[in-house]
Design a protein that fits this description.
Membrane topology: Multi-pass membrane protein
Number of domains: 1
GO biological process, one term: spore germination
Number of strands: 0
Family: Belongs to the amino acid-polyamine-organocation (APC) superfamily. Spore germination protein (SGP) (TC 2.A.3.9) family.
Helix content: over 70%
Protein name: GerAB/ArcD/ProY family transporter
Distance between the termini: 30 Å
Largest sheet: none
CATH topology: Amino acid/polyamine transporter I
Order of helices and strands: HHHHHHHHHHHHHHH
Number of helices: 15
Organism: Cytobacillus dafuensis (Bacillus dafuensis)
Strand content: under 5%
Radius of gyration: 21 Å
CATH architecture: Up-down Bundle
């Protein structure tokens, strides 16, 4: 019997988990951020960011393939020893907690600003916490099924962005390369930030049933995310003029607000539900990885007891801090710098280190 049979996930669930961690509430402001940096050429930065994420993802999976039945905790302890290995796991723990918190707060601020302005923020986080507790405490298999279900429920959502295009103009995209490569490069960091999430594959890989499809799965997931971001960004660029789009903080919501159906009066309520489903996948997966790290550090096989503690901290922090957009942007800036190291630099360095380590071990015992 395999060590992780109870929590095994299918290849499609694996793909849905990666997609879920990469697409949170941040896509609502992505077109505006890119337009501020590179005008209507900002969409090109998404393709470059996708290429970076593909390369880093392959390094990540190739490293995990060397130890197919070991978790990231087991791998780091094997490679770096107990002290340094646990220190790196602690970094992952803090990283996942911060990202889970930021995604939840980002969603909270959108809902508070657009839909529930009079509802206390900690009450909204408390409401978020109830389904989060039920999903996260049951392990990766249930989270994988949830990610798969959300994918099916929201797969129609990108098509919604095509409806307002009849009032847009493709001329807004022309001429291409009008801002130059320097400005496009300036938009690259926000584009790269939008692909964060694939680094959690370190946690998903040991539970994958058919590990031979790991590289293919992560490439498919990254490509789907890239296409989603391209559809959202290009539709916003076509609908809004290049001078106007940078003035909107959440141009995606402004775009969706203009959609009208004769048979449906409150399209914004559907948008709210879709937004909650999409964002919840991301904070749920980061939270699972956080409590997994904490349970491993404390030598506990069951992580379920850590989930309500972490959610309680989130609710308490929201009650005392009352996060604002300005605070969120400051926190996001700092955690994004950390994300560059964890998602893009660490997989490459770890792959190089494991290659040297394995060669040394083989020579020593051959």
């Amino acid at each position: 019997m395999k060590k992780y049979t109870y929590n095994e996930i299918t290849t499609f669930q694996y793909v849905c988990l990666i997609i879920g961690t990469q697409i949170g509430a941040g896509f609502l402001s992505l077109p505006s951020v890119l337009a501020q940096k590179a005008g209507s050429d900002g969409w090109m930065a998404i393709i470059i960011g996708w290429l970076f994420s593909i390369v880093s993802s392959i390094f990540l999976v190739k490293t995990a393939e060397k130890y197919p039945n070991e978790t990231i905790y087991d791998i780091l302890i094997r490679l770096f020893g107990k002290i340094l290995g646990k220190a790196i796991i602690l970094i992952f723990l803090l990283y996942c907690i911060c990202f889970s918190w930021l995604i939840m707060i980002n969603t909270l601020l959108y809902i508070n600003g657009w839909f529930l302005p009079n509802t206390p923020d900690y009450i909204i986080v408390l409401i978020f916490s109830i389904p989060t507790l039920l999903v996260v405490r049951n392990g990766l298999r249930i989270i994988g099924r949830y990610a798969e279900l959300v994918f099916y429920l929201t797969m129609w959502f990108p098509l919604l962005f095509l409806l307002p295009l009849k009032d847009g103009s493709l001329l807004h995209l022309l001429p291409l390369f009008k801002v130059g490569w320097k400005s496009i490069a300036a938009a690259e960091l926000p584009a790269i930030y939008s692909f964060f999430g694939f680094e959690l594959t370190f946690f998903f890989y040991p539970f994958l049933q058919k590990k031979q499809y790991a590289v293919r799965g992560i490439v498919v997931a990254n490509t789907f995310v890239m296409l989603f971001y391209l559809i959202v960004t290009l539709c916003c660029f076509v609908f809004f003029s290049p001078d106007d789009i940078a003035d909107f903080n959440q141009p995606v919501l402004n775009l969706l607000k203009v959609i009208e159906f004769h048979f449906l009066e409150r399209i914004d309520l559907i948008i709210l539900n879709v937004l909650l489903l999409i964002a919840s996948r991301a904070w749920i997966m980061y939270m699972y990885c956080a409590v997994y790290c904490s349970s491993q550090l404390m030598k506990k096989q069951d992580h379920s007891g850590h989930v309500p503690v972490l959610l309680g901290l989130f609710i308490g922090a929201t009650f005392f801090i009352h996060p604002t957009w300005l605070q969120f942007k400051t926190w996001q800036k700092w955690i994004s710098y950390t994300g560059i190291g964890v998602a893009f630099i660490f997989p490459l360095l770890l792959w190089i280190y494991t290659s040297i380590y394995e060669k040394y071990i083989r020579r020593k015992f051959s």
